[in-house]
Known about the structure:
Elements lengths: L12 H15 L4 H8 L3 H8 L7 H11 L4 H11 L6 H8 L4 E6 L10 H14 L4 H18 L6 E7 H5 L5 H15 L4 E6 L13 E5 L5 E6 L4 E4 L2 H17 L3 H15 L1
Parallel strand pairs: 1-2, 2-3
Antiparallel strand pairs: 1-4, 4-5, 5-6
Amino acid sequence: MVNRKELKPDSSPTAAFGERLRRMRDARGWTQDELAERIGCTGSHISAVETGRRPPTQRFAASADRALDTGDQFERQSLAVRQTALLEGLPEYLAHEGRAAEIRLFESGLIPGPLQTREYARALADGAAERGDITPEQAAERVDYLMERQSMLARKPPPLIFAVLDESCIQRPIGGAGVMDAQLARLIEFAGLPNTGLQIARYSMGERRPFNRLVHLLTLPDRSLMSYVESQTQGHLDRELSSVLPLVRAYHQLQIGAASQAESVAMIRHLRKGSL
Length: 276
């Protein structure tokens, strides 16, 4: 076939997924456009996935399984693709987050993932790729995975989500003025939802702020608790009450010391006016 790109499935999980998709399509004698019609996308999208230029989303993989009658093989393979871009320990946490009844977030320096706009997330991922921490392909995978994570949190009924952000999260410019302004607008939108709470931990809290790094706390439907904390290179999920309960108590102290939601939204609105 003219201009048919040679695939190297051993180079990455994304490439392995694309090679398998092409092989299964070829076995049925379908063109890219014919497979695209069955999946509900375009032929150029199929081409991009097959050649590794676009990582498959979970929705795409599930549609490919239906079109090619492969059970859930593509969907399971797409999980490996998405996990290559994630910090160790995070995939296990996200599996629990997707079914939690209550989610409590604390972050310092950056807006937490569930509250990020795509453009903000893309700026962070591109920065990691420029530093050589991840590949450009993994940067795209990271953003796509985050968007899927956010869609899971929009389920019905939605979980309760409480977010306390260190003031540095809203002061630190990411992606330029336009990206940051849209991100601040997203925080205001988040605060207005009926199932959310948003507070800013002002710099003036000083040593009274109990956390110095990311802390996420989950309450599952059976009311069991778990915590997730991160270092620079690794995440840690903990289900032991003796370890989790002190974090829950500290989170309550954090909420008491932080600005109220009304004060926090006013702070964000003031920043937006200054950035326009």
